[in-house]
Amino acid sequence: MDITYQDTRDFQKEDLEDLFLSLDWFSGRYPDKLQAAIRNYKTVYSAWNGRQLVGLISAMDDGVMTAYIHYLLVRPEYSRMGIGRKLMELTKDHYKDYLRIVLIAYDSAVPFYEALGFRKEEQETPMSFKRR
After folding, report:
1. How far is it, in rounded angstroms, from Cα 72 to Cα 129?
2. Structural domain tally of the chain?
3. Is 130 inside any structural domain?
4. Which residues pair with 46 in a beta bridge?
5. Domain range spanning residue 73?
6. For 81, which of 19, 31, 52, 88 is 20 to 30 Å away at the CA?
7. What is the C-alpha separation between 88 and 17, in angstroms, rounded?
């Protein structure tokens, strides 16, 4: 299997919908909004197996100090193949001169992010406000 990586924010909404729903992510139910949102991110890397979108990472930043990773997804049938790690390496390299990269992780993903050098901060609590 030959996975290729791209630096692009231009995706077909069907590709995004398929990837996000493969993980049962809520935002996959809104492909038009998802497509527009991805175009607005500062940094997006994607992983492809041929014409199939199999992974994606997106980040936004303040241009100087802090970058925020919002999405990191890999289709379930492609997990544990190094795709998420490679997407994160591309992103970390892109932001190598920034003081920090921030993300909010589900508890089940914490060991993965720790293996990539992230750590859970003692004094910080992730918070969100969701409209559904």
Report:
1. 20
2. 1
3. no
4. 6, 56
5. 3-115
6. 31
7. 21
Q: How far apart are CA 37 and CA 129, in angstroms?
A: 17
**Residue burial 11-26, b: 16+ Cβ < 10 Å; e: rest:** beeebbbbbbebeeee
Give the CATH number of the domain where residue 29 resides.
Answer: 3.40.630.30
**What is the DSSP pairing of strand 43-49 with strand 66-74?**
unpaired
Task: Please answer whether residues 92 and 57 qualify as being in contact, where contact means their C-beta atoms are separated by less than 8 angstroms.
Answer: no
Q: Which residues contact 31 (CB under 8 A, 6 or more apart)?
A: 13, 14, 16, 17
Could you read off the pLDDT of 65-123 as tens digits, one per residue? 999 999 999 999 999 999 999 999 999 999 999 988 988 888 888 888 888 888 888 87
